[in-house]
Amino acid sequence: MEQHFVDALKINDEAVIKTLYYDNRDAFLGFSKTFNIDACDALDIYQEAFLAIRKHAISGKLYHINSSFKTYLFGIGKHLIYKKLKEYAKKQPYNPQLHKEQTDYDEIIIEPTNNLTPQQELLQHYFKQLGESCQQMLTLSFFRGLTNDEIATLKGYDSEAVVRSQKSRCLKTLKNLIKSPLNHD
Prior knowledge:
This protein is an all-alpha fold. It folds into 2 domains: 3-91, Rna Polymerase Sigma Factor, Chain: A (Orthogonal Bundle), CATH 1.10.1740; 118-184, Arc Repressor Mutant, subunit A (Orthogonal Bundle). Helix content is 66%, strand content 0%. The chain contains 8 helices and no strands. It has helices at residues 3-11, 14-33, 39-59, 69-91, 118-127, 132-143, 148-155, 160-179. Helix 7 (148-155) crosses helix 8. GO terms for molecular function: DNA binding; sigma factor activity.
């Protein structure tokens, strides 16, 4: 890395730091657009990356770096962008209209086909023997792919712990139905 940049960051040379900050900012913000990240978040990420590179300079970590200042800064920024994208994915709220989900249970009709394995036929048979609430719970979770929090919101439960416990009870019931030797005669 450019030695004079590392030294300027380490000794707090405000003129050089200000130049480095503004010379790289627009390029980084343009780079962040390729990740479809919010502009305000991109600016926050740039500032966080710049502070991180400054801390690395102060601690002496940058004296052995072979890349340029800009490459190192963008590397830190890219890591922070990926972290932010993971946060975005976790924060996507469940929207019933978006998923065309109704507050009432949509019955799923499984058409019998000759393509089912014996295990799938067994599962289908005993799934139909479960109560309606268990069928709904397992369908929302495993067929629709909703999280416990989304199911709790959709069904009006107090917390995702209630969903987790009911789902566990339903799975146990289904397993017991399938495993029971009396049911296979």
